[in-house]
Design goal:
Oligomer: single chain
Mean pLDDT: 82
Shape: globular
Number of helices: 17
Low-confidence stretches: 3-8, 490-501
Number of strands: 0
Length: 501
């Protein structure tokens, strides 16, 4: 393995290795999309738990679990083993992660609300815990595998490709296969039986993609940074955490991630309610929307590197993000103004499909650019602290993102309770007042959270020139360390001292 410094040269990253790394994103994306799209409606409308109870459980579990992230990040940064710093944690997560995901969707029948609430809380916590065991080290691998400004964006684009496949691809499978709505009205997302096959296949995909990512990148372990040999006290660990996270660009990204996570959590939690009840779409049409998201996500994968080269990651992300928010709120705004096509018409479907594909394209490109911006903080922090802390930086950002994404779900369920959304509701039977209030609450909420996130990015201070300067400073530091270890004069152009006659 290389030394802890992050600038040491390594063999070129091959396409198969990039792909093996990126495949790991499928597991997290599948879980995230499953929870955000189906979990609330499953436990609320199918199992029968009150929406605020479900939201509170999810928020509490996510908040509690989120504080494990920086601890695991710091541990993995300083972990020494024959399999390196990251791979042992990733491998250990595979089986329990998959098993707990399966159990979430198969709760006991006949239990009380309180017992089912406890069951859900324990399993949500377990899924998040094992997701952390995999995802934090997996994200930390990216800055180690790809160090160049554009190479890193390309790797993040490939990772996002599998995020799309894992999240939206499995959602399409849910609508079209496992939770398919039959012509006679049976089946669908409100049919409990379909969730068994959905959860079983999802668990197998989580297990398989983690193994591919672990063993597909294992040959790079000798070239990855090695944890320093040292003993560190708890106080010393806390001091290092504070020093590493005291970075203006990192703080800007954390604030942006926090508010974006609330927006995304609320948006995803309400998405299926808008689809089924606000727009009165059939499930085949919901599957069509998910398909448009996949198409847009793929376009965004290719758009992000181009935008980064032309405008830089930061300003490119800002421009695309503002445009994406404007596009996203257009259909609901038109409906509230009385300008949208009527439900059930082809014109409405094309409006929704058009919004979905454009918004998914822009959202994918923004997500890739933001992930690459976060990765660029690694070298900036290393220049200032002398430590390579990918795990800590990635996990600390994930900590607040996870915590407030639970807040987003809580916001969504609170909105449902506020507008008096009925349990076990039938499509077309929800009052017009409740649906109008849902739209009126949604637009200012989503715009407000995204606006704060966008403004926070303005304070981010690492561009291409700064990143290249950081890499050059780290290379010079490695050279100085090598010269010092070689002895006086060696590598400095000076001759060693000679002995007199």
């Amino acid at each position: 393995m290389t030394a802890a410094g992050g600038a040491a040269p390594a063999p070129r990253l091959g396409y198969l290795t990039k792909t093996a790394y990126a495949v790991g994103a499928t597991a997290t994306a599948l879980k995230l999309r499953a929870f955000s799209t189906f979990l609330v409606i499953f436990y609320n409308q199918v199992v029968g738990l009150p929406p605020q109870m479900v939201g509170s459980i999810l928020a509490a579990a996510l908040l509690f679990d989120a504080f494990l992230d920086p601890i695991l990040g710091q541990i993995s940064d300083n972990f020494r083993s024959r399999w390196g710093r990251r791979h042992p944690f990733m491998l250990a997560a595979a089986l329990p992660y998959a098993l707990c995901f399966f159990l979430v969707w198969n709760p006991p029948i006949g239990w009380s609300h309180e017992a089912l609430g406890l069951y859900l809380m324990v399993l949500i916590f377990a899924v998040r815990f094992f997701d952390t065991f995999f995802e934090v080290p997996h994200q930390a691998l990216a800055p180690e595998l790809a160090k160049g400004y554009d190479e890193r964006t390309n790797l993040m684009a490939l990772r996002h490709f599998f995020l799309v496949i894992g999240g939206l691809g499995m959602t399409i499978m849910a609508y079209q296969v496992f939770l398919r709505e039959q012509p006679d009205g049976t089946g669908g997302v409100l049919d409990r039986d379909g969730y068994f096959g959905y959860s079983l296949v999802g668990a197998l995909i989580i297990f398989g993609t983690i193994l591919v990512s672990v063993f597909g990148t294992a040959h790079r372990i000798p070239e990855l940074a090695q944890a320093p040999t040292r003993r560190i006290t708890l106080k010393g660990m806390v001091v290092e955490i504070v020093q590493t996270l005291n970075n203006r660009s990192f703080v800007a990204m954390v604030i942006a991630s926090m508010f974006a996570a609330v927006a995304v959590g609320a948006r995803n939690g309400l998405e299926i309610y808008f689809g089924l009840y606000f727009w009165e779409l059939r499930q085949v049409e919901l599957a069509g929307l998910a398909t448009m998201s996949v198409v847009g996500g793929f376009i965004g994968v290719f758009l992000a590197p181009v935008v980064a080269r032309l405008f830089g990651k930061k300003w490119g992300a800002l421009a695309l993000w503002v445009l994406g928010v404007a596009v996203h709120i257009t259909p609901v705004s038109l409906r509230l103004l009385g300008l949208a096509p009527e439900n059930g018409t082809p014109q409405l479907l094309w409006l929704l499909y058009g919004e979905e594909i454009i918004n998914a394209t822009l959202a994918a490109a923004v997500a890739i650019l933001l992930a690459s911006l976060i990765a660029d903080i690694v070298e900036d922090a290393e220049v200032k602290t002398g430590r390579r802390s990918e795990g800590l930086l990635m996990s600390a950002n994930a900590l607040l993102r996870k915590a407030v994404s639970g807040g987003g779900i809580l916001v969504a369920t609170t909105v449902l309770a506020f507008v008096g959304f009925p349990e076990k509701a039938e499509r077309g039977q929800v009052s017009a007042e409740a649906l109008t209030n849902l739209g009126l609450a949604y637009i200012p909420m989503i715009v407000g959270f995204y606006a704060v996130a966008i403004l926070a990015i303005v304070a981010y201070g690492i561009d291409r020139r700064k990143h290249d300067a950081n890499l050059e400073a780290l290379r010079a530091r490695v050279g100085e360390q090598a010269a010092a270890e070689a002895g006086p004069g060696i590598g400095s152009g000076e001759l060693p001292p000679t002995r007199g006659p």
